[in-house]
Every structure is written in C-alpha cells, then in structure tokens.
Amino acid sequence: MSGPLRGVLVADFSRILAGPYATMLLADLGADVVKVEAPGGDDTRGWRPPVRDDVSTYYLAVNRNKRSLVLDLTDPGDLTLAHRLADRADVLIQNFRPGALRRFGLDHDSATARNARLVYASISGFGDAGGADLPGYDLMVQAAAGLMSLTGDADGPPYKAGVAVFDVIAGLHAAVGILAALRHRESTGRGQHVTVDLLSSALSGLVNHTGAYVAGAAAPHRMGNAHPSIVPYEPLPTADGELVVIAGNDGQFRTLCRVLGVPELADDARFRRNADRTAHRDQLRPLLVAALSRRGSGAWFAELRAAGVPCSPINSVAEGVALAQGLGLDPVVTTGGVPGIRNPIGLSGAPPRYDLPPPELDEHGAQLRAWLATE
C-alpha cells in the first residue's frame, strides 16, 4: 500500500453507496479497506443492469481498492472474527440502522470499549433519535429535505435529481469527519464517534436554498432551470439547440451582450445590475433568446468561451467524459482491467492509487480469515 493514509486499517461494514463511496476515497488515498459483506453480498451487486462482465456497474463504481471478506454475524465464529477486525482497525464505518449492531457487540460503545483508538463512523438516514426507524434511501431524503420541491418546472411536478446526490454528499462528509478524527487521535491517542446522517447532509448541501429560508425567511420554490439570484443562469435556445449561459457578475453580462451583438442591453436600466436583471428576468430572457437564435450552440460556445463568458453545451454523460478527457483531466482510470472514474483529489506528493479492482464476493476471505485467526 502507498499514499498518505498508508497504514490506516478500515473495517468497512457499510453497504450500498454513502459508506462505500467514503471508503473508496480513503482506499484510493492508501488506506487498507476490508469490505465486510453478509453472505449475500452488498446489495448493489444485484442492482443491474447495466453490467460489465456480468458484474453490476453500480457496485464497480464505488468499491475499488478494497478486499472483500464475507462474515455472517449470526455465526459465533464469524462474529469473533468481526470483533478481531474491529479491535485491530483504525477506523470502523457502518450504515446499519441505528442500534442494529448492538446485539453483535459492534456498536460504538462496545467496539471502543475494546479499542479506545478506534475512529467509529456511523452513517444513518435520519439520525439516531426521532428518525432512527427510518431507512436511509437517497430518494426518501431528496423528498424529505426539500430538493424535489426545487427540481422541475415551476408549474410541473417535483422531480428527483438524476443521481443519488445526498448519498454522495454524506459519503464525502463521512470521509472528511474520519480524517478529522484521525488527526485528532494523533494528539489525544483516542478515537471518537463520527456521525453523519443523510438528512443533515442534504440540508447542508442545499446551501443557498436552506440559507434563504433560515437566514432570509424566504420560501424557495421550483423555477425550472432558472436561478433565484442570478440572471442569466440557465439553458437558452439557440438556432440548433440549447446552451447554458451564465453571467455571474455585471462584467460578464456586459461581455455577453457585446458578443451577442446587443451591447445596449448592458446599459438598459432594467438589466444593468444583477439585482435589476433578477427583477426583470421575464423581459430579459426573450431578448437574449432572439440574439442567440442567429447562430448554433457550437458557434456560440466557441465565441463566448473565447471571450470568458461562462457557458456550456448540454452534454450526455458520454460527452461529459469526453470533454474532461479533451481538457486533459484524464477522468478514466483502469484498475485490474476494470475502468472507473478517477479520484477527483489531486495530491502532488502522494497521489491516489489504483491497485485493486472491485473485489469479487469474499475474494480475500481465506487470506483475511487466516490473518484474523492469529493472536
């Protein structure tokens, strides 16, 4: 193993997305992650299609650089091995329902009583108090936190995001919390309990919308692709499709107007400042659409990009990957013959590693059982 987290042993009792995403990030950075699976395996192994070589691509997306060990916690022998793994680990992460691991002696209090240096991370859907009984599925949280109320046309139904966004955000929060706890352990010698729940991550991840409510008493609502505070900040039709066009400040708006051949709009009192444009968005939009209709999206993208105006075509996922490749970001890495998206963290001295492909179920079971059997 190499990387800045070399020597950190992670006992990963999590499954599905938030926990496995967090532990993959840690594994990419050098941690030794032992993925503990029930005899049936991680649920995402069965989430198909799509597949690669008859393996779920959902599972492949978040499980590289790990070793798989199957343990049946209801079996006394396997439970002993689970305890030994927790006793030797630097980090234990789990996303069972709150309290579910207590009967196995793998809850925070039991595990840290045996291993005081253990950083114990718990991911739940709605916390361990009033929402302890609620399962933590991302779609539930998108609905409960208010994201769906913000997604879709103003006069249409609410929509979910196209990806399990709050699982990913919670995974990121868990990884940050674990790293903070490991740093704290360096000075204290003791671990601590890192708790992350999807609802709190969602409310934090809604940033300006939750901020508008709690700080400004505003009531955010669906606006289609428009932005409540910035105009323009949305897709606009051109001669052959739509182009996302953004004027994040007044200078960018002036440049946009010049490139589009309508410089007079930047001096119009209705549109001179962003607050003015926001108040008069319904008058501004058709004027911009009329100017954009003279050329196609590709031509406008090239010209606006050259002028420094934020804009983008609306790509497919394939086109997004191709764009990153064309920009020199090298988005795809291959680990043991399995392609995946590289870790987005760049480190100049100890970059992420890509040593182990996502493991087959219990692929490392014999090796790990032999190690855990030793005193």
Describe this structure as you would to a colleague.
It is a single chain. The protein is an alpha/beta fold and 375 residues long. The protein folds into 2 domains: 9-206 and 331-373, 3-Layer(aba) Sandwich (Rossmann fold), CATH 3.40.50; 233-323, formyl-coa transferase, domain 3. 40% of the residues lie in helices and 15% in strands. It contains 15 helices and 13 strands. The chain has helices spanning 18-28, 57-61, 76-88, 108-114, 138-145, 147-150, 165-188, 198-205, 207-216, 250-260, 274-279, 281-292, 297-307, 317-326, 365-373, and strands spanning 9-13, 32-37, 51-52, 55-56, 66-70, 91-94, 119-124, 193-197, 233-237, 242-246, 311-313, 332-335, 338-341. It has a 6-stranded parallel β-sheet with strand order 5-2-1-6-7-8, sandwiched between helices. A 3-stranded antiparallel β-sheet has the order 9-10-11, covered by helices on one side. A two-stranded antiparallel ribbon has the order 3-4. Strand 1 (9-13), helix 1 and strand 2 form a beta-alpha-beta unit. Helix 1 (18-28) packs across helix 7 (165-188) and helix 10 crosses helix 13 (297-307). The model has no long low-confidence stretch (mean pLDDT 97).
